[in-house]
Amino acid sequence: MTTGLLSLLFLIHGTASADEPALKNDNPLSRQKEVLLKFNLQPGDKYHFSSVTKQNIVQEAMGQQMTTTQDIVADYIYDIQAVQNGMTTINVTFGSIKMDMDVAGMQKLTYDSDNPDGGTEELKAMSNMVGKSFLMEINEEGSVEKIEGLAEIISSIGGQQAELLKQSFGDSSMIQNMNQVTNIYPNKKVRVGDKWMKKFSGPVAGIMQSEATSDFSLSDIEGDLAILEMNGEMDFSKLEGGGGNPMLQGAEFKLKGTQTGTLEVDIKSGLPLQTKLKQAISGNLEVQGMQIPMTITSDITITGKKL
Question: What's the CA angle centered on 272, arms 21 and 111, to 5 degrees?
Fold first, then answer.
């Protein structure tokens, strides 16, 4: 079912940002202070990240409007292995996952890693990922340069569900997803009011190409926290070349959207302590000559803390 596949596609496509107004600091000394913002986690440290996503997807096909809603809570553990020549190696472990999805009122899908046997069959393959780890290398600007061991986790699952997970959680998709969480730093000294741009580009779930541009600004400094504001634009199009999800072969995406938000970042480590995001995406999906208008709205909150 197209609706169900798109729901699964977008549940794994996360980004980092928010729409709440930044804290205002009237202290002129803080506003003149320069801070160096970069990815600066230290070997031996461990961090817990939790992502909470509430999403609404509306599609129109053959005169019918279909609405899919989903709530997803996912946890990761970052174990910092080494830092060398500005590159940080992290052991990333899939923690708990909880998901509730209502596909147009026709199908309800649930999964909770704390009670995997109680979930629906379509999502039970995710149990094979919980507790498993892979390596990730990130530079000082927060760009994910390399992932190792993830493909082996996915390939060990087997079956049709494994094929879908390969498209959704393969190396290229995971790099894209993680980049939009961590690739936020100017990697230079900035003052309140300074701005910088970040770009993201890559495949999503093996079926479409994503291009994103985000404008960041340092809106305030509150003690050890840097408050960042961001405004961004996203563009999703057909994935050129080979590969792609066989379940959506020939599908063409023409989607555009915006994302706005705020981030609270620990100045010393660069750790995003709280990230909030609002996304609004709209456009068309074309399948076998049929145009399917769709809109996707998302509210995402990501929190990080040192263990």
Answer: 100
